[in-house]
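Bench log. Compound arrived from synthesis this morning; before running ITC I wanted a structural hypothesis for how NDP sits in the protein. Inputs:
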Amino acid sequence: MSTILKSYVEDRWFTPESGFADIPSAIDGRVVARASTKGLDFVAALRHAREVGGPALRALTFHERAGMLKAIAVYLNERKEELYQIAFDTGATRRDNWIDIDGGIGTLFAYASRGKKELPSERFVIEGETEPLSKAGTFVARHILTPLIGVAVHINAFNFPCWGMLEKLAPTILAGVPVITKPATATAYVAEACVRMIIESGILPKGALQFIAGSTGDLLDHLTGQDVVSFTGSADTSEKLRNHPAISRNAVRFIAERDSLNAAVLGPDAGPGTPEFDIFVKEVAREMTVKAGQKCTAIRRVLVPRAQEETVTEALKAALAKAVPGNPRLDETRMGALASRAQREAVVEAIEELRSEAEIAFGRVDIPDGEGAFFAPVLLRCDEPLKANKVHSVEAFGPVSTLMPYDTLDEAVELVKKGEGSLVASVYTYDADVADALIFGIAPYHGRVLVLDRDCAKESTGHGSPLPGLVHGGPGRAGGGEEMGGLRGVFHYMQRTALQGSPDRIAQITRRWTKGAAAPVTPEHPFKRNYEALKIGETVQTPSRTVGLEDIEHFAHFTGDKFYAHMDEEAASANPFFPGRVAHGYLILSFAAGLFVDPAPGPLLANYGLENLRFLKPVSPGDSMRVRLTVKDKRAARSPEYGEVRWDVEVFNQNDETVARYDLLTMSARTAA
Ligand code: NDP
């Protein structure tokens, strides 16, 4: 019996009554679900996101939002077997579903962890350092990122109903923006099951997530410049949406991931018998058959040196012959079905188009009997790919690739470029010059490039795997969008603002001290104060001490660092940077600590690093030095026990010239501890 898919809007499940689209199983064609959004109030959904979800999310810090992502990941992880069972009907095998379901949950975990580690316990982000804008230092600027106050509309493709949804959801929720997510109808029943779990977990605040099973109605007509549309699917739909009047009129941010004819290039050095040759054959065959080739990152164009064409063809034929499509529910099945019979027809049509420029080297296009959407791999071969166009532009979204020979490396680069922009390319070589020529030739056309060789193949995540920390997207035909890429993906849902003003005002607004802002010296040493009691700007001004030649020599002998600049007057004088022998940079750091440290046990727990260290002027024997230590930033309460404090440290000489500057990072105990 087929299920009627429900949408989740205004924190209620909406059950449609008419206007259904039937969703057939990819295995046997029976209708597994029916979807419709007839009668759904899209304006109310947008209002709910903007008025309820947005404010609730923005009231939370990045760390609180990261905590929710982690809790959702744990919740889904405990229930994923249910998703696996539902997803078999999409034609996906257990291994395919692992990419989709575990991959999606993994992306939630990854963003939870990045949010906690790389973002402050705040509601905004400071980007970069202070920009000095005036001679006297009374006018400065700093870039900040704040969440957009609109809604993120996510429109997903059919091939990854879980991962595609979750890899967009994670960075958006972390940014503090509510989501309306719409899966492709063909596999919407998997996405619905996943959303159902997220909703029943009760982890997200009201209005943070809404779900549309079916068409988007008039949703897009009401988008504003505070909204974002993030789309994955075909170039045709992407073009239609990008040109939607509301989207173009209101400059709605539009992130697109679409058709991509990704290439794999075998280097001229990687002949038969080399590890790279074997890695190449294995990777191409795998990319053609995983998800039955329905991956936006799958290898569509296989570029080989002309001399290797025959050998590669034979090796690929042997590998592909083993990929017999079968029932995805069975463990032994290596390749499942396409998502639907309609999809299979589209693949066959695309192959027919490609055949005007290429011939079939392996496989067949006649469709097997039965109600399922099974389709065996097809390898095409194009003899004159430089003169061809379709093999570089028509994406057969199934287990289909085209082999193309090249004569020179320049030609290989030209061929890759004919794809007019792709998500990913992979290069198989063990030759540094070949790698260099190919990478710098093709990098501007790709969001990701993988160089595979014997040294990394074993641990490589492969050509086809987008990773949360890496950019996923590509220029031109691939849509021009970028997703994930660590925090970059979060920032797509935030507005970058250059904030100008006086150092005091900028420091107060951003909760980060900047040079020129008030730096009151406190009667009590700040090392005696716990995390909560510390105030941004509180400062220690130390007395000064002299650095003698005996200090430098003592340090050199004690540490073993007898570099000539510290120990040999003649050699040091010949160095254009030094007036003669100078103090070690590390000696300056050590003396600085000796000057500013308060030695008694107290709430300061540990020094865990320095950042932005610069030695700006040499310290000669006889010079003196003093230190200003200021609480710069305490925006990261890492645990109930302690918080991270950043101190601005500046070391001056007897002429008040800065000789060194850095950020000192410490952990300080919290009141709770
Ligand atoms: P579509 O572009 O048809 O659909 C993608 C998404 O857009 C679906 O959720 C779809 O919803 C939605 N959509 C379609 N029309 C509109 C509209 N007018 N307004 C709002 N939303 C709309 O792509 P498919 O997923 O069907 O895949 C078709 C082809 O796209 C594939 O054969 C392949 O070539 C390519 N593709 C490329 C990918 C890539 O990243 N490179 C990934 C997946 C597909 P609904 O399903 O309800 O129509």
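What the model suggests: The chain has a mean pLDDT of 95. Residues 519-669 form a domain with the Thiol Ester Dehydrase; Chain A fold (CATH 3.10.129.10).
ITC booked for Thursday regardless.
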